[in-house]
Amino acid sequence: MPRPTRKAAPLGLVLDPAATLPLHRQIGQQVRRAILERRLAAGQRLPSSRLMASELDVARGTVLLAMDQLIAEGYVVAQAASGLSVANDLPDEMLTAPPGRGAPPPAGRTAPAPALSRRARAALRDAPPDLGFDDAPLAFPTGQPDRTAFPFALWARLLEREWRQPLWAVAGALHPFGHAGLRAAIAAYLGTARGFTCDAEAIVVTTGVRQSLSLLAELVLDRGEAAWIEEPGFVGTREALAFADVRAVPVPVDSQGFALHRALAAEPAARLAVVAPSHQFPLGSVLGLQRRLELLSWAERHDGWIAEDDFDGEYRYAGRPLAPLRALDRSGRVAYLGSFSKLLFPALRLSYVVLPAALAPAAQVLMAAVPARPSLLGQGALARFIADGHFTSHLRRTRLLYASRQDALLAGLERHLAGWLESARDPGGMHLVARPVAAIAPRFDDRVVAAAAARAGIAVSPLSACHAGRRRRHGLILGYAATPEGGIDSACAALADVLRDTVPVRRRNG
After folding, report:
1. Distance, CA of 473 to CA of 214 (rounded, Å)
2. What is the CATH topology of the domain spanning 23-96?
3. Whole-structure pTM value
4. What is the pLDDT of residues 135-174, one digit of tens each?
């Protein structure tokens, strides 16, 4: 059945009421195109808004909204006596725009690729598959909590309480480090849950781990200096250091995590180590006490610094976690990074860094000049959420929930993907790494598999993308925290279908 259209107006406009584009934008786009293609000449009078509305069978307000936008853009002018007309002073180059700019190319031709920088081309090459932004839950996204487990009704009440009569310090000029109440709540929580004391005046609320790490790098390193990073590791670590003009030196990790002797062999002059000792991303290893003490000793003796990324240390399902490096630090050399977005819900966009106290004065100056500081909207509510005990209760509930989902994922992998992928139980975290079995490993390209899975509605991350060096291991990172337990088995079955269609199988000669 053809889609309904409205009859043409004197301008030759044809509107589609079934389109997703609002009617006022359809009007604006078509009039703008008519001007650029010189079908409407400079100075030409346009029909009145009443006439256009009548001819198009739309509300007059719809036409006025479209004309107001065209007036604001300079395509149309409004004069009291003569009504609306096409502007006389449009630039000549705008009126000779080549076909294909802003319009589909002619049949049989493709639009030329834009001239991009090398870093933009690299970003496109390494970008994860496009999974859309709709409400459909996707299986196995990495770094995503279960949003349905978060108490949004309670959160709304806390937001309302905070903003009914906000304090001047909140509604006025906020401290560069963020909401004072939130920083105090974080300090109290860390003292109880993570076992170290810190001054709220040294806590900086940030938009994410990238901003936290970039701030620390700018504080302790000069441009071009080196920092050790884990290999494989979180892609955002490399991005944050690049933003601070710091050279990232990848250090291969093993089953025991980051090894200082390998780091010194790779770059003896580095003065910053970025590590995730409680649960290394993505491999999940835990840094043993001996290596922790070696790293702390290095920082103390060589004027070095340590960035401790504790992105999901709250989720431990077996045994007690080791004390954070920050709790063992005697000389003020460890900055502790945490994130609420990965624990509560991603759109919160609130993380924090606990700086060594000696760095706080300089950090305040740098943060005051940062244009993209974290939104204040949720900081006060989050302070109440933590102080009233809701945060620890939420962690306790989701810890049980995620442990059960890891069990379900392991069962699904065994049931549907044995012979394709192999994985093992992880005593903590929110994801598992599944590697190809030896028989298919030489033909397993995790980027190809991830792209094919995305087309099937499954969000898996390629392990190879976590490597900074040329030697890359392939596998799939499967986040289970945000995947409903009832959908894990069917998602594993669908992933098996993807692998059968994607990974070539070596056939024996008969």
Report:
1. 27
2. Arc Repressor Mutant, subunit A (1.10.10)
3. 0.76
4. 555 799 998 999 899 999 999 999 999 888 777 767 776 7
